[in-house]
């Protein structure tokens, strides 16, 4: 048993926990059985099982409380049998005072107003809590003792269920058989669920970066992304005007993987060819080529519009609306509180005008 200032009760357990649908049916048999049926009754319950017929599960470090009820005024003694064979004496102890329980009342250990708590600890597996009620106080010096003045809980010398039953029989044998009775409760301690997710931080030296993981856009750079499944993950960092950065990282459970990207020189921009003056001959050839291919030649305004929209989507904008006008195309894209309007118009002499306007809304 562990005891600290908060009185952490180490209620241990080595069997695998059963699921709720397959929980074993536990009878109310006791570790030590009174050969006669006295008119004294006691029942012991744990906070997750008010019936006493179940086998609830607790996680390590989870709080637990134990309740005892007797039909007559009685002294109640509580023991926990751990799966490794060790036995903890829960009550009486040096924290909760006397172990006297009034008739037909339920006493909970620890009490709601107690200045200490009981907390489940390892090992994992099956536990048994034994309650022994006696009309007279028992002398437990033969089976348990406080090793030091600092110990809050007594150490039981017996080991295992059979050892505890034999040790208690020495104490209760001199008592009249109608003056003591026992009851048992069961619970299981399960291991903590393993951490299966991790985090990723991507830092860059330029603004406007977009982080893409396994083909899915996460968002901007210089941000930590959490709850990512552990394992290998392909990463792409995209910045307009720069070559994409690609790598593969390993996401570790409960840890943060760091990726720092230093973008060098931006890509060289190839100057657009000088516009060609429109002539009837060129128009005729262009139409003829389109007719020969049985297709319509690509509209320059549409090409310019598609390229600008693609650039903005690479920066994290989402296309909300797109429509064709008499002179070109108009689109609306949104990212956070920013709205961008892209307008492309055909001009004279085979020119195309691209206009981008941005509106940002701030909350104050």
UniProtKB/TrEMBL annotation:
<dbReference type="Pfam" id="PF08308">
    <property type="entry name" value="PEGA"/>
</dbReference>
<dbReference type="InterPro" id="IPR013229">
    <property type="entry name" value="PEGA"/>
</dbReference>
<dbReference type="InterPro" id="IPR013784">
    <property type="entry name" value="Carb-bd-like_fold"/>
</dbReference>
<dbReference type="InterPro" id="IPR025493">
    <property type="entry name" value="DUF4384"/>
</dbReference>
<protein>
    <recommendedName>
        <fullName>DUF4384 domain-containing protein</fullName>
    </recommendedName>
</protein>
<dbReference type="Pfam" id="PF14326">
    <property type="entry name" value="DUF4384"/>
</dbReference>
<feature type="domain" description="PEGA">
    <location>
        <begin position="198"/>
        <end position="265"/>
    </location>
</feature>
<keyword id="KW-0732">Signal</keyword>
<feature type="domain" description="DUF4384">
    <location>
        <begin position="58"/>
        <end position="137"/>
    </location>
</feature>
<feature type="signal peptide">
    <location>
        <begin position="1"/>
        <end position="22"/>
    </location>
</feature>
């Amino acid at each position: 048993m562990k005891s600290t200032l908060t009185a952490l009760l180490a209620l241990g357990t080595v069997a695998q926990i059963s699921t709720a649908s397959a929980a074993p049916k536990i009878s109310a048999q006791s570790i030590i059985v009174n050969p006669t049926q006295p008119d004294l009754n006691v029942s012991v319950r744990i906070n997750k099982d008010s019936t006493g017929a179940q086998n609830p599960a607790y996680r390590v470090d989870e709080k637990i409380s134990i309740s005892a009820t007797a039909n007559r005024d009685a002294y109640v003694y509580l023991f926990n049998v751990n799966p490794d064979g060790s036995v903890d004496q829960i009550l009486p102890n040096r924290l909760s005072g006397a172990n006297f329980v009034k008739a037909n009342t339920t006493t909970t250990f620890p009490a709601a107003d107690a200045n200490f708590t009981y907390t489940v600890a390892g090992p994992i597996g099956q536990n048994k809590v034994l309650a022994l009620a006696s009309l007279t106080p028992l002398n437990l010096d033969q089976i348990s003792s406080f090793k030091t003045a600092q110990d809050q809980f007594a150490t039981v010398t017996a080991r295992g269920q059979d050892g505890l039953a034999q040790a208690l029989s020495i104490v209760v044998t001199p008592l009249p058989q109608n003056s003591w009775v026992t009851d048992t409760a069961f619970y299981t301690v399960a291991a903590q669920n393993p951490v299966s997710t991790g985090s990723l931080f991507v830092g860059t030296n330029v603004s406007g970066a977009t982080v893409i993981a396994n083909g899915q856009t996460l968002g901007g750079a210089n941000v930590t992304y959490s709850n990512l499944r552990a394992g290998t993950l392909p990463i792409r960092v995209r910045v307009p005007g720069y070559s994409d950065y690609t790598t593969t990282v390993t996401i570790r459970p409960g840890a943060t993987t760091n990726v720092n990207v230093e973008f060098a020189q931006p890509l060289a921009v190839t100057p657009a060819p000088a516009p060609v003056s429109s002539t009837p001959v060129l128009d005729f050839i262009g139409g003829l080529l389109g007719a020969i291919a049985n297709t319509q030649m690509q509209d320059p305004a549409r090409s310019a519009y598609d390229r600008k929209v693609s650039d903005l989507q690479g920066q994290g904008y989402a296309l909300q609306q797109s429509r064709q006008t008499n002179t070109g195309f108009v689109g609306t894209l949104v990212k956070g509180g920013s709205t961008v309007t892209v307008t492309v118009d055909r001009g004279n002499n085979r020119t195309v005008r691209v206009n981008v306007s941005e509106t940002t809304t701030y909350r104050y």
